[in-house]
Amino acid sequence: MTKYRRPLLSFALAAFCALIPAASPMAHPPFAPYDDTRFAPITEFGPSIGIEVVATGITAPLKGVTAPGQPNRLYVVDQVGILWAVDLVTHTKTPFLNVT
Q1: Whole domain around residue 84: which residue ranges?
Q2: Which of 17, 45, 87, 94 lies at a C-alpha separation of 20 to 30 Å from 74?
Q3: Nearest Cα to 70, choosing from 48, 53, 89, 56?
């Protein structure tokens, strides 16, 4: 039975190598008429403003936003499932929503 394994393995490898080039043009066409994406070199990253620590003890912040009408309060989504309300004047944080 071992004498049949090598030809079968060779045939499977040859078939795999033959199918890869045939499938790759279908996966990503070289010309996409509706795609106007232009890639440019990145010379700067992010805004050129200073960074200030407004709260400590947050595990892994994902996003921070301010609510309309509350410019002195920052809502920070933490990866562990807590939405923190951070007061930007006093730099204190309180849990606003806990979904852990």
Answers
A1: 61-98
A2: 45
A3: 89
Q: How many helices (H) and strands (E) does the chain have?
A: 1, 4
Does residue 6 form part of some domain? no
Length of the chain equals 100
- 73 C-beta neighbours (distance < 10 Å), count: 15
Rounded to whole angstroms, the Cα distance separating 78 from 98 reads: 10
Residue 13 in 3-state DSSP? helix
pLDDT in tens, 2-60: 555 666 667 766 666 666 655 555 555 556 556 555 666 666 666 666 677 888 888 88
Sheet with 82-87: strands ordered across: 61-67, 70-78, 82-87, 92-98
